[in-house]
Every structure is written in C-alpha cells, then in structure tokens.
What does this fold into?
Amino acid sequence: MNLTGTFSPQALGWLGEAFEDCSTVSPFSRLTADGFTEEEKNDLLEVGVVDNEDNITSAWSVALTCLARPHSFVRLRFQTDILGSERVMYFGDEELDSISLTFTQDEKIRVEYLPDNEGFLAEIAQHTGNSTLLNSNFDCRIGFHEALLLLAAVDLNRLQILRCIADEVQPSFVTFTEDALYNAAFIDGEQPVRLTKILRAIRNRPEDLPREELGECLQSLCDRELFVTAEEGYELGDAGKRLAGNFLIIDQVVQIDCGSAGDEDDLSFAQALFLQAGLHDILMIDPGGGSVALETVSAAVLGDYLQTWVTEAPR
It folds into this structure.
C-alpha cells in the first residue's frame, strides 16, 4: 500500500526513536528529535501515523521499518540557477520494498512508501530534455590528477572564449605553459564556475599533485591526444577544444550518489555527476574505481540512468 506524508526533520527524528539497530544508511542514524513539539505530535496523530499511546500505527510501521533498516540508498540532486530538488530512495530487503524522501522548499520532508517516481523524473526531464543527439563526442577514463589537469585546460579555454565574446572579437583557444596549467588546476582551481572546483568537491579535499610529477601526467595526456605540444607549451586536443567550446556555461547539474551497507555495516559508495550546458551538451563525471571517467552523453541516456538508479536497488 502506498503511503505519503510530509514531516519536519525533527518529527521524523522522533519517529525514528522507536527503532533500534538502524542501518548505517538509515536517515534515522542522523536525524534527531531536537525541537519536536506537542503540536507536531498531534499532527502525527491526526494523519494516522501514531495512535493515542504514541505508538506508530501498523501501516506506517511497515513503511518506517524500511526507512530504519534499508540495505542501500540512492540520492538524486537536481540544481539550476533558480531551482533545486533532492530525493533519496531507500531500499529494504523485500522485493519492491522502497521509500523515498523528497526535500521541499519549506524545509519539510515528503515521505512516500512504494513511491511512483515517474512524476519526479518527468519534472527533471522538463529541464534536461530527452534528445538522443550530442554536439560532441568525448570519452576517456584517466587518473584523478590527470582529470584535474585536463579540466583546468578546458577551464582556461572556456574563460578565453568568454572573454573574446565579451570583447566582441573572434573566439580563440589558448596555449598554456606548465606553470599556468598547474596553477589553474591546483592553485586557482577553487574559483567559481570552474570545472576543476566541481571535480575537487566530488573527491572531497584531494591531495594536490607534487610539482615534480607534472611532466609525467602531461606526457600521459599527450599520449592520449587529449593534449598536444605547441611552440610555447601545450594546447587541448581537438576533442577537448570542442568540449570547452560547448560547455561555456553550466546551467544545470544532476548528481547521483548511492551507497549500500555490507555485512559488517561497512558502507560502499558510488557517485556520478552530470553537467548540462544545453540540450545536446551533457558531461558525465564518474570518479569511481580510483580514476575519473569523463563522457558526453545525450539527454535520453541521462534519463535512462536516472530511471535505473531510482528503481533498482544498489548491491
């Protein structure tokens, strides 16, 4: 039976106190009842979540047990300049046993047991589109520091093209020295709108590349034709130049995080990020497996990813 309710974080925290041995991935492990009021308790009584003895009713007990002891979760975040939404799916042990938390604009949490995700995905598709076309094909999997250097070079070219547009001159690509690239990746890489800032945020305060190892990374990027040598340094390869030209302004971001609890309550975690600069320009960043995959995908492929991730429990 489908159940739906909207709660404050402290109300959910209070309900979670009824459950012991919560899973590592359960939100009850983090939510608290601090600030929970009698008025909120009465609201729970009126909508049938608890009875007069403050016990959770049988229907909601099944739903909240799924929330207390899920084996895995998938978090989906969607962000534009003016709109943001977040939904977390939790998966229980029974087939099709799932519950979603959607965070609302008024800082409430919408809880839906056995949710229908089609409406949520359709809302996102209104922004991302569903075209099968791509403006450019780009696909590589490289080490984290190499990925930072590559995106730093893309950033340098994005900024150059934007300056040319602002100055009303013909856009051009840049030749960069080793020092300029290193600074862009590891010193200035936290500047707003830079792709390097996004990648560093995914890795969560990564270590910088030792300066003496830069040459080896540059050679690796040249061997893959992602960089080419120039008279005064390096340039992006053709595929990278197309990437820079097509991703001047990132107007929306879709982030997917998933995790599952193991037998010893250890947590395995995976993540993917989709940066969209237009209907036919979406860059997927997958930092899994000790390396980073960078791939342009269509809006239709993005939609397929989202459909799979919100309906199939990670294991």
About this structure: The radius of gyration is 23 Å. Residues 246 and 281 are 7 Å apart (CA to CA). Residues 134-297 form one domain.
